[in-house]
Structure formats: C-alpha cells, structure tokens
Fold:
Amino acid sequence: MPRPSGLDFANWLDLFLGSAPSRRSRCSCLDTPRIDAFLGQCQPGETPSSSSSSPSPSEDRYPASFNWHSARTLLGVYFKMMEDESSMSIEGNIVGLKSTNAVILATDSKEYEMYLIDDRIYCCAPRSGIDRKIVLEVSSKVEQLVRDRGQKVTVSQVRDMFCDKYQNAESPNVLIAGQDSKGLHLFSMESGKSRMVIYAAKGTDTENIVGILSHDWSDFINLSEAEHLARKALRCEHAEMCTIYRAKEIEEQGANMEFDMDVDPSVSPASSF
Structure:
C-alpha cells in the first residue's frame, strides 16, 4: 500500500485535529512539500530524520509492515515532526520585565505557554516540541528536589538546569522569572547559558520590541506601568500575562538565615572582645 502524500497527510491531520485549534494552527505552518520530504525519508525499516545527513535522536525503527494509513502511525509521525521543529520557527513573541514590586512574563501568541516550575518560579516557552519536553523535565526535577529531599530551589538553580538542557541550542525562546530569598529575578536563555536581565524579548519581532522596552523602561517603573509597557511592546492589548509579586517576607527570611549562619553560637557577645 503506498504511503500518503503530503497533501493526504495534511488533510488527515485537518480532520483529526479539527477540534483542537491550537494544534491545528500549529499544523498549518507546515507546507505539504515539506511533509512530502519528511515522509520520503521514512522508508520501512529505517529511522526517520530531519535531513539526509542528520539522523533523528529517536532510535525507533519502523517495521517492514509499517502501515502508513494507520491513524496511530500518522499521529506519531506528526508529533515527531513537532519535536524536531525549532522554537525559532514559532510565530509570536514573549516579553519579560522587572518592576519595583514584581516581575512579569507576557506573550502575544498561543504558541507559547506560562509554565509553573515551582511555587514562585515560572518560565515562558513554546508549548510544543523539544522546548516543552525540556520544560517538563526541569519541572519534574524541581518537584523531586522539593518533595523528596525537602530542598528549597532558587531561581538560579532552575536557570542552571535549563542551561544544562539547552547546551546545544542556538537561542531558545525561553524566559525564566521568579523570586527567592535573593529577590526578584529574570533570565533570558541563550546557547547553553543565560543572561540576568531587567527586560528581555524573544520571538519574531525581538528587535522592535527591545527598542520599545529600552526606551520606556525605568528603574522606578511600577507594576501597572510595567503591564502597560508589556502590552505596548507586544502591540497586543489582550496579551497573556504572568505576574510574580514581590513577597518581602521571603527576602527577609533569607536575610535572617544568612545572619544566623554568620553567628557562631559557641561564642557569646561578651567573650568575643
């Protein structure tokens, strides 16, 4: 039985995903010639790859009786393509900025999602593909540290986990924001590293957005002004937003813990002279 063409594949997905607008719009960015090229590489008994010289990291092999007209098979191929999609191809933008009493993440696109990593730590990243996989892996690791070991995870520790996962990525569209005992933090992910920033933008219109942020941001910007600036920079009045408010008690607890560690309980104030 011959394998379906790219058009057949796209039509099948259109029917299968008709009730899922976000997935359907994700599929629409893949043209049928590209689907044809991808399917053409998936010969029975071979591992599919995104290019002839660069094999897929997946070790799955298709059996000789590979049924290209199976719904399960086609859905598997579709999501494999989604995993191989770079976040650079995603439409839309994300913004992060700090204010005097909060840190904000915002996006103008349904292609991005606000992920809860820990109690006061979030990241904004693509909702599909390898980026989603990485976010879920980091989130699982954080949950393990908090639940099983009783550790308090800092924003910098979460940042380090992402840096480890993105060592070979060119420039992932990921922003991390949160608060710990050291204060409010905003990190922009780069290739295997990160930058601590006061504002940042990622996406298809980064240059223009950063221009607006750099012009309007100030050291004394409050939360209301920051939210307005995020919408202005994204040119989206109804941008999805995530706000982490400054909780002073968290920073005060951190300061008290550091003070206690500096005091030697075996030495009294009187005997120290």
The longest strand covers residues 112-118. Residues 3 and 207 are 43 Å apart (CA to CA).
